[in-house]
Design goal:
Blueprint (H helix, E strand, L loop, with lengths): L2 H11 L19 E8 H6 L3 H20 L3 H4 L2 E7 L3 E7 L4 H13 L2 E7 L2 E7 L18 E4 L5 E5 L2 H9 L22 E8 H8 L4 H4 L1 E11 L2 E10 L2 H19 L6 H9 L1 E5 L2 E8 L1 H9 L1
Antiparallel strand pairs: 1-2, 1-8, 2-3, 3-7, 4-5, 5-6, 6-7, 8-9, 9-10, 10-12, 11-12
Helix pairs in contact: 1-3, 1-5, 3-11
């Protein structure tokens, strides 16, 4: 039975229109956040470069969910924000005018997992869904909904999903607002641009533990951040690594530049890959390594598909 898996996938990808959130900043996330992810589907649909990514997403993700779950995310998906902390677990924030039909389907899917309980907090209703444990295989060992999910439609134009009761009750009490830190000190490094498409970041230590990697690079990397944005009709991709010391950032930069130099004149190389390498810049500022490239949308989509 795959019902709970589809419910989780739906929670991670459904969203609806909102003019209030154009992106996330460090002040929007708890200082103890281990990772964050933000996707702006509205921007993808409306921007010259982003629409190519959105078309790919629609074919590769939305169509499958519509076929398996019966929910058309193309009509109800505009953006999502997700993050996780040690204490609060996984939190998914979704804004929009979610249809009653979609709410009904979510409740039915929750009931089909094996357990669907209804609760109230401050006069607002929320639900808890949990499967029997045999139908969940998300290949995610950390911060997943393996132990069930709390969800609520009680805040107008919002769908809230959490992995802990405490997070759900706090969100309902705060009218579904993100509870960011009072200062950016110690917060995750957040990259932002004028036309964000995707933002993501993580503490490298947590990545190492979850992936079981014994990597000297990971041990000397504190944070990693990724930004995908529309820049003049091209897809601008920027990745940054914050290392424990400048020497590590310099070493990584040298390795990457060397790999680019070795491959860039390879006659057998795919022209699209060659274009990617030729356009890539590598810079170091203090202990931060920055890798950036701006490409035609078709090149990016072709690389993803291959």
């Amino acid at each position: 039975m795959r019902t709970l898996r589809y419910l989780v996938i739906f929670f991670l990808f459904v969203a609806a229109p909102s003019a209030l959130l154009a992106g996330v900043g460090a002040g929007d996330l708890p200082e103890t956040s281990k990772w964050y992810f933000h996707a702006d589907f509205t921007e993808m649909r409306s921007s010259e470069a982003g629409k190519h990514l959105y078309d790919w997403l629609q074919k590769e993700v939305f169509d499958d969910i519509r076929e398996d779950v019966g929910v058309d995310l193309d009509k109800e998906a505009d953006f999502l924000t997700a993050f996780a902390t040690e204490a609060e677990g996984l939190v998914v924030m979704i804004d929009g005018k979610i249809s009653q039909e979609t709410k009904d389907k979510l409740l039915a899917m929750g009931a089909a997992t094996g357990t669907l309980d209804q609760f109230e907090s401050g006069g607002r209703t929320y639900y808890y869904a949990q499967g029997d444990g045999d139908d969940v295989d998300l290949d995610i060992e950390v911060d997943s909904f393996d132990n069930g999910a709390f969800f609520s439609f009680a805040i107008r134009n919002k769908l809230l999903v959490t992995s802990t009761r405490e997070s759900m009750q706090a969100l309902l009490a705060d009218n579904g607002k993100l509870r960011g830190g009072k200062s950016e000190k110690g917060a995750l490094f957040v990259l932002s641009a004028e036309r964000d498409l995707v933002q993501a970041g993580a503490r490298a230590g947590d990545l190492g533990k979850s992936a079981n990697w014994d990597s000297n690079i990971l041990r000397n990397t504190e944070q990693a951040a990724l930004l995908v944005a529309d820049k003049g009709g091209k897809i601008a991709i920027e990745a940054r690594l914050v290392t424990t010391e400048k020497a590590m950032a310099d070493s990584l930069a040298s390795i990457i530049r060397g790999l680019i130099s070795l491959q860039i004149f390879n006659a057998d190389m795919d022209p699209k890959v060659a274009q990617f390498l030729q356009s890539t810049t590598v810079d170091v500022a203090d202990n931060t390594l920055k890798i950036s490239v701006a490409l035609d949308p078709e090149v990016v989509v072709a690389a993803i598909e291959n």
